[in-house]
Description:
Strand content: under 5%
Strand order of the largest sheet: 1-2
Distance between the termini: 47 Å
Helix content: over 70%
CATH class of the domain at 115-377: Mainly Alpha
Largest sheet: 2 strands, antiparallel
Radius of gyration: 23 Å
Shape: globular
Mean pLDDT: 82
Order of helices and strands: HEEHHHHHHHHHHHHHH
Number of helices: 15
Structural class: mainly alpha
Number of strands: 2
Amino acid sequence: MPGASGSAAGAGSTAALLDPSVPLEPVPGGTDGAPVAVPVRRSTARVVLLFAAGCVVLLVSVVVSVRIGSTPVGYGDVLRSVASRLGIEAGGAPVPRLLDSLVWELRVPRVLLAALVGASLAVCGAVLQAVTRNALADPYLLGVSSGASTGAVVVVVLGFGAQTFGVTGGAFLGALLSFGLLMLLLGHGGLDSVRIVLTGVVVAQLFTALTSLVLMASGDADVVRAITQWLLGSMASARWDAVLVCAAVTAAGCALVWGASGALDGLSFGSDTAASLGVEVRRTRGVLLVVTSLMAAVAVAAVGAIGFVGLIVPHGVRFLVGPAHRVLLPFSAVAGAVFLVWTDALARVAFAPREVPVGVFTALLGVPLFLWVLRRRGDL
């Protein structure tokens, strides 16, 4: 009977809507013309195939990027150097010590750190765009980048904690301080999306002003130049300890936010929709803010503030695979890693032997890419 089949279809739709494992997409149909959330199912085989292809592209990008630089390195030398460090017999003549050090101590950690930071920033951007329901949200929305910049500047210019923490430690502590201030200010009025955005802007402006004040107090032009380069983001100081820390934080953070994919789908439609799906809105928002802030803090402390990755990559991936976070988050991680690996390679060779901060190229490439995405989405 038509009525019975319609009821069954409606019941199935409702069950799917309440199942956090089923992604949601907005479609027109609300009583006031606003979008409503409906479940959408995608071909698992197609998604897995696309993700595998993305991982292959990332692996190829890493290998190719390792040999790119002011001193070109052959693929054979890269293979033998990495294999010897891992205790694997690769055959052929041993790699000269200087070349081996160049590959293993400089190029490999640099490329791996670029991949990890790109993945971390892209995932943070995708999460914050859902949590705040703001298409312009990025990992630095919460003021973490500004706080990290202040911490780094205080260590370099004023020398506070230089022996104990160093620039990376100072930047991390500054990021934590800015996030702590953000949560303190938010604690009095709730965690709704508008308050998060506005409070994040206020905190970011405060620490930006403090950074400028400290820089003006410095009379050393070389120090100011070095800090300015760090503020624009650079992989030049990448070392294995930073890679290991960033890898651990990025892996744990990505796993945690991916586990909250269903909640993120609900939050994309607002607090009321998320609550109707059984999401503890305040608690979930708080946890996601803490996780993304820690991920962004570690990334900024390691390489400086690199803009546009967390903004453009999620939008581009969302255009290709849809808004379901169960798919969007892993694809954003891979796309962000590939994007930053190639951007860093370009920064190394574009004006060789002089190196340009990678943040300059992410902005130069990010602006036209973002405009293209907006045009394809019909927003421009």
